[in-house]
């Protein structure tokens, strides 16, 4: 459930900025057919920062409805206010979601003790499995392995999505947190190497575009068949790089629209559509990866 190739799903919107649920259903079906192992709904890639609380909850529940038991759905429930993250976790109790992905609080730069107390409070308020999410490139605060180790002692804190790109943390987290603690990469560029180093899988932006390739690659890597996995990774490497030429999810939404998987590539302000000068670069990455 919390391993393999997991997609950090976009939230499709129409030209007026309203959530496009028809396109959302299309995306869910696409990932089921492609063999993805799970969906993260309304994480960073799902524009959690710009949807309302009511929309956030509805998008997750509609994703669950569209999945219809065919694929696990993990809800993004992070916030930089602890009470808000707790509210999200409580709202999804009994809904059928597989677990929660909770990001390190952003902007307010908590200490390591503040991070510990934040996630401790969330854990104690919810019975749902909790996956920590460390992405210092966006949050500024970096949750150190020693803090992760303290949090791993809570029964329902089951793993971490690590987007630092620091492959040595796979070993450190394994040593400090034990073999049962789930390690997921949140950095597409180093995701395969993360799994090769002992990780359990990836939560991926590239997976939005190259879902079947990612699913096959991670399955091969987990089986130790690294030569074939690296061959796939080499082909989709342009996506790992060029889906980040502007802030995520700007390029990936443009690419999904270009592929016809969503009806419109609209984002909510302050994000705007992919710069016209960069569109040929992303389009070439789609061609090179064999998805367009």
TrEMBL record:
Active-site positions on this chain: 133 (proton donor/acceptor), 161 (schiff-base intermediate with substrate)
Binding residues for pyruvate: 45, 203
Chemical reaction(s) catalysed: L-aspartate 4-semialdehyde + pyruvate = (2S,4S)-4-hydroxy-2,3,4,5-tetrahydrodipicolinate + H2O + H(+)
Site residues, Part of a proton relay during catalysis: 44, 107
One record GO biological process: diaminopimelate biosynthetic process
Coarse class of the protein's main subcellular location: cytoplasm
Keyword presence, Cytoplasm: yes
Keywords assigned by UniProt, alphabetized: Amino-acid biosynthesis, Cytoplasm, Diaminopimelate biosynthesis, Lyase, Lysine biosynthesis, Schiff base
Record-marked site positions (L-lysine inhibitor binding): 49, 80, 84, 106
Summary of subunit composition and partner proteins: Homotetramer; dimer of dimers.
Name this protein carries in UniProt: 4-hydroxy-tetrahydrodipicolinate synthase
Originating organism: Grimontia marina
Classification of source organism: Bacteria, Pseudomonadati, Pseudomonadota, Gammaproteobacteria, Vibrionales
């Amino acid at each position: 459930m919390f391993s393999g190739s997991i997609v950090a799903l976009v939230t499709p919107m129409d030209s007026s900025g309203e959530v496009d649920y028809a396109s959302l259903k299309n995306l869910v079906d696409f990932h089921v057919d492609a063999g993805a192992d799970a969906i993260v709904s309304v994480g960073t890639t799902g524009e959690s920062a710009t949807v309302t609380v009511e929309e956030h909850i509805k998008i997750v529940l509609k994703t669950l409805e569209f999945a219809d038991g065919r694929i696990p759905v993990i809800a993004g429930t992070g916030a930089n206010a602890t009470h808000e993250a707790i509210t999200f976790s409580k709202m999804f109790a009994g809904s059928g979601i597989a677990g929660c992905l909770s990001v390190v609080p952003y902007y307010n730069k908590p200490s390591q003790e503040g991070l510990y107390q934040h996630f401790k409070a969330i854990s104690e308020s919810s019975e749902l499995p909790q996956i920590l999410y460390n992405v210092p490139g966006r949050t500024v605060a970096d949750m150190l392995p020693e803090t992760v180790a303290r949090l791993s002692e809570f029964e329902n804190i089951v793993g971490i999505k690590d987007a630092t790109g620091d492959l040595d943390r796979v070993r450190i987290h394994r040593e400090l947190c034990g073999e049962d603690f789930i390690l997921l990469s949140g950095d597409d560029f180093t995701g395969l190497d993360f799994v090769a180093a002992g990780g359990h899988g990836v939560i991926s932006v590239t997976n939005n575009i190259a879902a079947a390739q990612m699913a096959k690659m991670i399955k091969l890597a987990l089986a130790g068949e690294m030569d074939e996995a690296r061959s796939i990774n080499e082909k989709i490497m342009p996506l790992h790089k060029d889906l980040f030429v502007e802030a995520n999810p700007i390029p990936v939404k443009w690419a999904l629209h270009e592929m016809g998987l969503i009806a419109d590539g609209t984002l909510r302000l302050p994000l705007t559509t992919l710069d016209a000068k960069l569109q040929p670069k992303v389009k070439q990455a789609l061609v090179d990866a064999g998805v367009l």
